[in-house]
């Protein structure tokens, strides 16, 4: 097989046209920062534009920063990036530790680790950042799961629509309440109220931003924590090493992101000009996906890539993407994973899977790597 066949492959998607899959690390990294590739589907063929519009309407979600190129992307990202700087995130670490300790205090015997820890920690942090009440979080989980199904073309579109309509209605009501009481905007300086007070986003942009923050702000971290714990439980030598050397925790999280991170395939890009990749010519107007899971296990970039090695230091993976769309919440996800996984493995020395690994179920999602549940014995 030639290097071109290994790194770049094309396939025909009915109703859309040619789609290209790029699996090499260096090639994928370069494409993710190449201005000739756009996240704006309006620059693609008519079939893709119509499909994107239909999907967005079905999710009751307008255009948001993940759909935009600079300069509009830069404007939208600028409204929230200060809330996710490493310094501000580090100030949240004591609160994340407090939440984690409280959650694990209730853990005994067999539990679903997603229900017990991986979901409630990032959801609680994100809701507190946005100023959303605790009693609404169970609804957010249901609506978020339904919306995440939208990435699967075979999903029940009625369920996707239900989640989108419900979440949108929630934020419409919240913003109406804030508008009716100006004091609440000033007296509670959470991110939602900060965005309202700034007044830089129009109503549709604000609704889409809040929906995106709530969804993206917890979903991928849930998967990072649960996938990471599973990887450690199925690599007991690395779990033992982490317990013996807890100072390895930050680079262990990076290795878990590389080895089996939540992002498996990048969101699609549209070529706005012809692009050469590993000897293949991708014409303008085609769709491109970087296969992040494959790129992060590229043997030409990573030594012994199939092996989980928490001592790996040369580890510039693509788990959070690359370029202008590099995950704005990366620092928050890293911190939450460090607190959750570090505390869990320290407090439960006998932690183990409650079922054989081949009995675990995974969500059907072409973009995200998500366990349905993670039953463990503590």
From TrEMBL:
One protein family per Pfam: p450
Q: What is this protein called?
A: Cytochrome
- Indicate yes or no for the key word Metal-binding: yes
Quick check: keyword Iron in the entry? yes
Similarity remark: Belongs to the cytochrome P450 family.
Q: State the UniProt keywords alphabetically.
A: Heme, Iron, Metal-binding, Monooxygenase, Oxidoreductase
**InterPro entries (UniProt xref):** Cyt_P450, Cyt_P450_B, Cyt_P450_CS, Cyt_P450_sf
PANTHER family named among the record's database cross-references: CYTOCHROME P450 YJIB-RELATED, P450, PUTATIVE (EUROFUNG)-RELATED
Organism encoding this protein? Kibdelosporangium phytohabitans
What GO terms are given for molecular function? heme binding; iron ion binding; monooxygenase activity; oxidoreductase activity, acting on paired donors, with incorporation or reduction of molecular oxygen
